[in-house]
Specification:
This protein is an alpha+beta fold. The chain contains 5 helices and 5 strands. The model has no long low-confidence stretch (mean pLDDT 84).
Length: 145
């Protein structure tokens, strides 16, 4: 049975292009070996003299492989405040051709995307309320491009 998990997190500090490339190469190598597909979105926001960064990721594959990968993701020191938006069984993969799709965006580009999700709002409150498929559909817009 196929399974997927979508989460958002806050970067501890903004990542350089080199650090992002390393992360991507590592993810692609490991995901290919485990039959995992997905998409990673990295968004930087410049406010006054401060830069903040957020991740949004979907991973899909065998449930045991996704659970094992997510256990590693949760202890990765590059991010914190990891919040699961959606998880569960799926009938088909949404990112079948991507061992790990990747997109870097600046906040100004990000807010203009169809179906924009305010990542800062995703971290507020005790419970996240998203109607089924909102986060997945948002990430799929990048796959369609």
């Amino acid at each position: 049975m196929l399974y997927h998990l979508i989460y958002v997190s806050k970067a501890v500090s903004p990542l350089s292009g080199e650090a992002l490339n390393y992360l991507l190469q590592q993810a692609r190598r490991n995901n290919e070996a485990d039959g995992i597909t997905g998409m990673l979105l990295y968004v930087e926001r410049h406010m006054m003299s401060q830069i903040t960064a957020r991740f949004m990721q979907v991973i899909e594959g065998d449930e045991a492989d996704i659970t094992s990968l997510f256990d590693k993701i949760k202890i990765d020191s590059r991010h914190h405040q990891i919040t699961v938006l959606q998880q569960g069984n799926i009938g088909v993969r949404s990112f079948n051709d991507w061992v790990m799709g990747f997109k870097v965006m600046r906040w100004q580009e990000y807010v203009s995307q169809p179906g924009f999700l305010d990542m800062d709002e995703l971290f507020s409150g005790d419970k996240i309320h998203l109607s089924s498929g909102v986060a997945l559909n948002f990430l799929k817009t990048f796959y369609a491009m």
